[in-house]
Fold this sequence. Notes:
The protein is α+β, with helices and mostly antiparallel strands. The protein has 2 domains: 9-102; 107-266, Rod shape-determining protein MreC, domain 1 (Thrombin, subunit H, Beta Barrel), CATH 2.40.10. It has helices at residues 2-21, 25-102, 263-266, and strands spanning 107-115, 123-126, 139-141, 146-153, 158-162, 169-174, 180-185, 194-197, 210-213, 225-233, 242-247, 256-260. The chain is rod-shaped and about 170 Å long. The N and C termini lie far apart (190 Å).
Amino acid sequence: xxxxxxxxxxxxxLMVADVRFKITQPVRVALAAALYPAQWIVTRSxxxxxxxxxxxxxxDAAQAAEAAALQRLGLQSRRANQxxxxxxxxxxxxxxxxxxxxxxxxxxxxxxLYDAADPYTRKNIIDKGLLDGVEAGSPVLDEYxxxxxxxxxxxxxxxxxxxxxxxxxxPVLNTRTxxxxxxxxxxASHAGALELRFMAVNADVQAGDILTxxxxxxxxxxxxxxxxxxxxxxxxxxxxxxxxxxxxALVSGAGHVMVLKPVxxxxxxxxxxxxxxxxxxKGRAK
Length: 286
């Protein structure tokens, strides 16, 4: 009990002395100076831990923001491509409608589904068939001109032989001179082109001449754009010139087409031939 009283009195004395005479101030300064390195290390450790946590949090947020930005960029890129594709498709459809207004033949729109699998032919498959009223021999156009002719018809789809196919031939008319001829597909010697055959060496055909359908085959209406003459070769060893033509239609990139009724389907049938009436002469009674 006496120790408690002694130490309590000592503590009270020291507190009063410190308040009045500041006797513990040097001790506090010395202790603060001695403890400062340890305090600095502990404080910096805490700050480093907190800063590292914030760094990783910001890194995760930045990576997430980058991923979101890349995703938005991809979406915008796809949308931009879709806009360009839709604009191109819209332009082609407008041109196809403008061509439809110039053609008086009954027609219907169709879409090209895919190219035929045979590598030795030039054919497309469209999404219209017998159920849609498509007939074999129907001309097929795109927004620039004659694309080909329907050669096979199925219930839901049809096969279109392109003008560049080696087995396809189309009567044409030179719009500059009015001369007629026949253009054949020529994929072998001049891929993706046509050849105007059986034209004399001295025929008036020049590069740049526009060829249209002549309408003499009862299949294609007259005046449809077919091709443009690209090159004329006059050979001394042959009586015919070699004339290469470039099709005006997009034979390798058509998306939407117009299927016309064949001209032969619009020609009224020939009236039946009536049997001649044979007059019967009455003989005289003898």
